[in-house]
Amino acid sequence: MHRFLIVIEKAGKNYSAYSPDLPGCAATGKTREEAEERMHEAIEMHIRDFSKMDYLFPDRTQQRPLWQYSHLNFYG
User: Fold this and answer.
1) 1: which residues sit within 8 A by CB, 6+ positions away?
2) CA gyration radius for the chain?
3) What is the pLDDT of residues 34-64, one digit of tens each?
4) What pTM value is reported for the model?
5) Residue 27 domain-assigned (yes or no)
């Protein structure tokens, strides 16, 4: 099993999500939960498509520690 960091950010009236470990893999949603759910779906598609090309995904837990921040508002 692979674990990937997901970054979810407030973007105006919606939320955006991406994984720094999976370039080009991103999602959006009206709520944080919807963005997270869509990001999980995007990761599944990303992995499925790249696996067909024999791409080896890094085990991100061995690359750097996971940091989780919740309920922080950087914009005031």
Assistant:
1) none
2) 13
3) 999 999 999 888 888 877 777 666 555 445 5
4) 0.68
5) yes
The whole domain housing 26 covers 7-56
26-29 and 7-11 beta bridge pairing: unpaired
Position of tokens 């067909």? 52
Terminal-to-terminal C-alpha distance of the chain: 38
Type of residue numbered 46: H
Inside any domain, residue 22: yes
Vertex 74: Cα angle to 14 and 22 (nearest 5) = 60
Structural domains counted in the chain? 1
For the record, the structure tokens of 44 come out as: 């599944």
Instruction: Flag whether 65 is in a domain.
Output: no
Per the domain annotation, does 51 fall within a domain? Answer: yes
Q: How far, in Å, are 14, 25, 26, 64 from residue 20 at the CA level? A: 20, 8, 10, 12
